[in-house]
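Exercise 7.
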Amino acid sequence: MDAETLRALLPELNAFLGRFDDCFVDCRSREHVPIYVSGQLSDLDRKSVEPIALKAGLPPRTLQGFLSWLHWDQDRMRDRVQQIVAAEHRGPNSVGLIDETSFVKKGTKTPGVQRQWCGHLGKVENCVVTVHLGLAVGDFQCLLDGDLFLPESWDQDRMRCREAGIPDSLVYRPKWKIALEQYDRAVAQGIRFDWLTFDEHYGGKPEFLGELTARQQKWVAEVPKNVCGWLTRPRVTTQPRRRGRRGRRPTKPRLVQGEPKAKRLDVLLKRHGKLRDQPWTQYRFDDREQGPSVWEVKHVTFYPTDANGLPGEPLHLIVARHVLQQGEVKYFLSNAAADTATETLLCVALTRHRVERCFQDQKSELGLDHYEGRKYVGLMRHLYLTLVSYLFLMRAVLRRRGEKPGVDCAAGASGGVVADHRQVA
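Solution. The predicted structure, written as C-alpha cells, is:
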C-alpha cells in the first residue's frame, strides 16, 4: 500500500485498531500497535521489526520489546479478530479453510525451525511451519488463527524450547490436532462454518474427519488415492466361521465370506463399473481471481474402511480432473446429506485455493514470513498482528470494490459453479 493511500486510510485504521485496546494493560504497549500494523500495510520491501521501527523513527529495540517482552494479551487479540468476523462478516455458504504454510529460515534459533517439508518451495528445507484456519464467504476471505507446528525433535529437547521461550505445556501435536483446536476456538467465539475444506494431508486422517463429524460439521476433504473402501456396501456378520465349537460364540463383526475386499480409490476408478463406466460430467467454475475453469467429475457413494477394516458410514466420493490437466486426478470425500448436489460439493472443494491467496497476500503485502526473532511469544504476536492487518486490508478492499457478488457455493448461484453441465464420454 503506497504512502498516500495509507495516509487516507489512517483515521479508519486508528478507529479499527481501537477495538483491540483492551488487549493491552498500558498505553506504552498500545501505542506500538498502529506503528507495527502501519508498517505491515506500507510499501516497505522488508517488513520485519527493524525496517518498520526505522520508518517510524523508533529504535528497533523498542518494537522488539513490544513483540517479545512487553506484557499484553495476544490471545485476546486473536479472539477479537474472530468476534469481529463472526458479527460483521456472516453470510450463506461460508467455507472454513484449513491449511499450513512455511517460512524458509536460516540457523537453528527460530522457534520450530528444522529441515522439514517446505510447501512454499516444494521440497525439504530449513523452515518454520505454521498451521492456519481461514474463512471464505462471498467476496470476503481472511485468516482467523495461526499456530506454530512444533516438530518432535524440538519437543524432545526441552532445554532448546525454554531458550526459545516455548512453554513446557506446548508439545508436539500432529497438524490435524492443531487444526481441530483452532476450529474449536473459532466456534467458541461465534464463528459458524457451513462447510470446512482442506487438502489430503488433513483429509487423509480418519481421526480428524471423525472429530469434525462428531461436532456435526459438514466437510469436503481432498483425500489421498490410497484411501480404501467400497462402492457397494459389503455384508457384515457376527456369526462364527465354523459351527460346532464349544464355548462362547465370537461376536466381533467381520465381512461375510466371499464379500470383496476394500479397494483403493484409484483402483476403484479404473476397475469398478460404478466409476469406470460412469461418464465424466463437466462443470464450469467461475472465480473472480482465477478466472473460469472446467472440471470433469464423477460422483458416487463410498463406504470407507473403519478402524476395524469394516465399512463405515456412507460418504460422497467426488472424482475430479481439470480439463487441461487430465493426468492429475483429485479425490474428495464429504459427509454432507445424501441429496447434496454434485456442483455444491465441487464448489466447496475448489474454494480451498482462497486460503492460498490469503497466504500469498500476507507474505507479499504484510510480511507474514519476515519475522526474524528468536522467541515463541514474538512469533505468535507477529502471526496475530498479521491477522489484524489482513482483516483491515480485506475490509478496505471490499469497501472500495463495493462488495460486488463473488464466488458463492450455492448450486447454480451467480458467480459460483455454473449449474448447467453436460456429460462427456
